[in-house]
Amino acid sequence: LEESRVGFKKGGMRILAIDDDSFALDTLADILGGMASIETAVGGRLGIEAALESLPDLIVCDVTMPDIDGIEVCRRLRLDSRTSDIPIVCVSGDMGEAEEVRAFTAGAVDCVKKPLSPALVRARIKVQLDCVAKTERALEMARRDGLTGMFNRRYFDERLEREWDRHRRSDLWVSVALVDLDHFKAFNDHYGHVKGDECLMRAADALRGCARRADEVAARYGGEEFVFLLPSTPPARAAQFGRLVCDEVRSLGIEHMASDKGVVTASVGVASLRPGPTLKPVDLLILADKALYEAKDAGRDCHRAKRGVA
Ligand code: GH3
Ligand code: MG
Ligand code: MG
Predict the structure, then answer these.
(1) Ligand 2 midpoint to CA 148 (Å)
(2) Cβ contacts of residue 96 below 8 Å, gap of 6+?
(3) Is 301 in the pocket of ligand 1 (CB under 6 A)?
(4) Pair type for strands 217-222 and 303-307
(5) Ligand 1 neighbour 179 (Cβ under 6 A)
(6) The whole model's pTM is what?
(7) Ligand 2 ion local residues (Cβ < 5 A)
(8) Could you tell me if 283 and 271 are in contact, meaning their C-beta atoms sit under 8 angstroms apart?
């Protein structure tokens, strides 16, 4: 869910409006209707539930509500990691200086006063929506590799850490596959860096296509190395995946006269572990690195798989 919030927006922006007065909600929906898709919730308790359920891009929340007031709604949504980054704009009829300070202290990004001026509300909300879009673009850039557009190592490491914690509570295997292009220094020396970059981009496209399950992550680990995160994947399936990756790179058929294979190939090291109390994510990568070394040693253009005992 968190993922879908920071990913490229497929639809438009979504705003959740919270108010105890359903007539006020209709008014708000009319004012904001052209700017985003509007969801409404009546009262603070339902508002918090709706926020957690739909993870909107922005929340507009009335301050004076009988069940849970808007300030408390702000505070609670701030404390929950799932909603803590969603900007909240407070709306109130009698917003004095002290109440405005309370709203900002609780985590609101802006305050608007009732009766609502449609033009002013739209202008202020637009500022917030633009800010959300800018932040999302920046987040997306921060987790992508510049050359290939793949996820980068930072994002991979974060995801591995998260999956690791999730798997620790289950009895499932988590697997990774390290992919290293063979004789790539020789490719650069023979064809030049520009062709080397093109080769990396083509390999990246092929590798991205290998990660078919929604929870699998393909990333550029650095240089001519790529890595896959394969959650809930037992050793046999992970090894099969390693073979598929090798086949995919070879079948691109990218000429490599400086390699004995004649085309660009990859070596793959696969590792599977069941996260135990003493193991860390880095142990899985160390294991994959050992398997990769064995694949290189066995003549390249092949995969080797290892499993660890938890
Ligand atoms: P091996 O088969 O043992 O993996 O040999 P190798 O030559 O692939 O490995 P080595 O680590 O010696 O060289 C990796 C090369 O990858 C060196 C570097 O110039 C190249 N490389 C790394 N990043 C990039 C990049 O972004 N663009 C280009 N064109 N080349 C890169
Ligand atoms: Mg390498
Ligand atoms: Mg290499």
Answers:
(1) 16
(2) none
(3) no
(4) unpaired
(5) no
(6) 0.83
(7) 180
(8) no
Residue 199 CB–ligand 1 contact under 6 Å: no
Distance 222 CA to ligand 3 centre (A): 11
**Which residue has tokens 């869910």?**
1
Residue 141: both structure tokens together: 């850039």
* Ion ligand 3 contact residues with beta carbon within 5 A: 180-181, 184, 224
Strand pairing class (225-230; 217-222): antiparallel
Expressed in angstroms and rounded, the spacing between residue 239 Cα and the centre of ligand 2 is: 20
Distance of CA 87 to the CA centre of its chain: 19
Closest ligand 1 atom to residue 197 Cα is 29
Confidence at residue 33, expressed as pLDDT on a 0 to 100 scale: 92
Pocket flag, ligand 1, residue 224 (CB < 6 Å): yes
Closest residue by Cα to residue 56 from 81, 73, 34, 39: 39
Closest CA to 178 of 228, 216, 235: 228
With a 6 Å cutoff on the Cβ, whether 223 touches ligand 1 is yes
Which of 182, 200, 202, 224 has most ligand 1 atoms within 8 Å of CB, for mutation? 224
Going from the first residue of the chain to its last (310 residues), give the mean pLDDT of each consecutive group of 10, the final group possibly shorter.
Answer: 39 92 95 95 98 98 95 97 96 89 96 94 97 95 96 97 92 96 98 98 97 96 97 97 98 98 98 92 97 98 90
